Amino acid sequence: METSLEIDLASFPSSEPERQYAFIDVLREMISEKRNRLGRDLTMHVETFGCQMNEKDSEKLAGILSQIGYVQTDSEEADLVLYNTCTVRENANTRVYGRVGYLGRLKKQNPDMLILLCGCMMQEEEEVEKVKKTYRFVDIVFGTHNIYMLAELLYKRLTQGKQVIDVRKEADRIVEDLPSLRKYGFKAGVNIMYGCNNFCTYCIVPYVRGRERSRNPIDIVRETKQLVKEGVREVMLLGQNVNSYGKTLEPQVSFAELIRDVAAVPGLLRVRFMTPHPKDISEDLLYEIARNPKICNHIHLPLQSGSTRILKKMNRHYTKEQFIDLTKRIREIVPDAAITTDIIIGFPGETEEDFNDTLDVIKEARFMSAFTFIYSKRHGTPAADMPDQVPEEVSADRMKRLLKTVGSTAEAEAVKLTGQTVPVLCEVYKEETGFMTGRLENNLLCHFPSEASLLGSIVNVRLTECAGFYYLGELV
Ligand code: SAH
Ligand code: SF4
Ligand code: F3S
To answer: 38 CB contacts (<8 Å, ≥6 apart)?
Structure first.
């Protein structure tokens, strides 16, 4: 796309987000001109790989593009395609390159198409090199620290006519008040902190997301109030280790204080959070969850391994016994707490005995559900150089047994609720069937006959049947 608008960049604001809004204005005119010329809307396709942090970033990126004038489409045959990438495991990377290759073929038919790559994978130098060498048709590459600059980078690409690469090593600031295009009506994520300082030895996140930085509590509460105004009923507070929230703020604010303030926002019905680190869970937080009806009784508590020996090698700072004791303490203070987890199989040096320790903890902790992963070697992390990498067949065999144990424990936990009456948030209504889908505090879903007018409210439902990982129920 050629440009028809000459602007004087020197006159642009240097403060953020004002500078970006100035670029958005200029781009809006450029896109509108092109729309008139083509006689149709310009479309965008934003696709997210990875975790809730990336989902949240994508909502901001889609928000910027939508203000510029792009209209969302499900199809990759769009005028602009943006992949927000993840690199936590190798298979995430492989998937992205497969899809980028396909985009390259689409671009041959539509040379004006713009292809943008951002996110965690782009924070790795070797990946950027690969894009530069092998995927010349990619228009813009940026990282996790400068997503707020999307409009500026797009302007640069359209006026300079060549590949734009802008990846920063660290975040220089937290930019507030960007536009956002949310994926769901009733629920939204809210970042409370960025980055991670834990350096678990298998994990690449601290390298691609940078050091831990907390957002100001005033900004977090303000964003929550705005979301409620827009119809949101449930927020999830997002951070890699939410329990270390506020340590770098002046004055310090604890996570328990923050979640209490967020829950106090009028009109908000539910608050969740993700992820606490088992080493840092405070009793203050547990008492706040128990006391506060708006905070869901659901704690996602990543175990990773049940073997004290492996946990030490992972740099997790807790033992098998401490983890089990923590789950007991959680249930003492929050009796109906649902605990879910993440588990890694095949960390270097993991023996059959270590694996059995993991199975023990699953049975003792009675997880409501678990995300299970086969260890993936990440370049530059300490575990990548550890001896005794576990052969694939061994990990695959352990994974099968792990899934069996996780499945039966989870089902036994879920079945316990059958017959009970519980509050659910009505999220989706299907006109054809007359069924509502609601979410329990434990994050499981329940389907029940209802009417559309209940969407967005919390109702009491009797769980009549448990179908493994969801329930059937009836309104009471
Ligand atoms: N900060 C969160 C989640 C980070 S990533 C936490 O500490 O729990 C989400 C999950 O991916 C992790 O909990 C872990 O189970 C998994 N994971 C991270 N690195 C991995 C690797 N190299 N191989 C396999 N799984 C990994
Ligand atoms: Fe990765 Fe550990 Fe940080 Fe979680 S706490 S993001 S697993 S380094
Ligand atoms: Fe992936 Fe980045 Fe999240 S590596 S898991 S998208 S923080």
So the answer is: none
Say whether 227 sits in a helix, a strand or coil.
helix
Q: Which residues of 67-81 are buried (b: 16+ CB within 10 A; e: fewer)?
A: bbbbeebeeeebbbb
The two tokens of residue 108 are 């041959």
90 backbone φψ class: left, alpha, beta (φ>0; ψ -120 to 50): alpha
Task: List residues near ligand 3 (CB under 6 A).
Answer: 50-51, 53-54, 86-88, 120, 205, 208-209
- Ligand 3 pocket, mutate which of 53, 95, 207 (most atoms under 8 A from CB): 53
pLDDT in tens, 426-465: 999 999 999 999 999 999 999 999 999 999 999 999 999 9
Ramachandran angles phi, psi of 323, nearest 5°: -65, -45
pLDDT at 4: 47
Mutate-to-test residue for ligand 2 from 198, 201, 304, highest number of ligand atoms within 8 A of CB: 198
* Rounded-to-integer distance, Cα 297 and Cα 338, Å: 6
- How far apart (Å, rounded) are the C-alpha atoms in residues 215 and 194? 8
Length in residues, the chain: 476
The answer to whether 12 and 19 have CB atoms below 8 angstroms apart is yes
Report the DSSP beta bridge partners of residue 425. Answer: 439, 458
Amino acid letter for position 208: V
Q: Which single residue is written with the structure tokens 């070797």?
A: 126
Is 347 near ligand 1, meaning CB less than 6 Å away? no
pLDDT of residue 2: 47
Per-residue pLDDT, 11: 85
Lowest-confidence segment of 114-123, 182-191, 321-330, 394-403 by average pLDDT? 182-191
Distance, CA 305 to ligand 1 centroid (Å)?
Answer: 11
pTM score:
0.94
Query: Which one of the ligands is nearest to 57 CA?
Result: 3
pLDDT for 279-299, tens place per residue?
999 999 999 999 999 999 999
pLDDT value of residue 6: 60
Pair 196, 275: CB distance under 8 Å: no
243 lines ligand 2 (CB under 6 A): no
How far, in Å, is the centroid of ligand 2 from the Cα of 241? Answer: 7
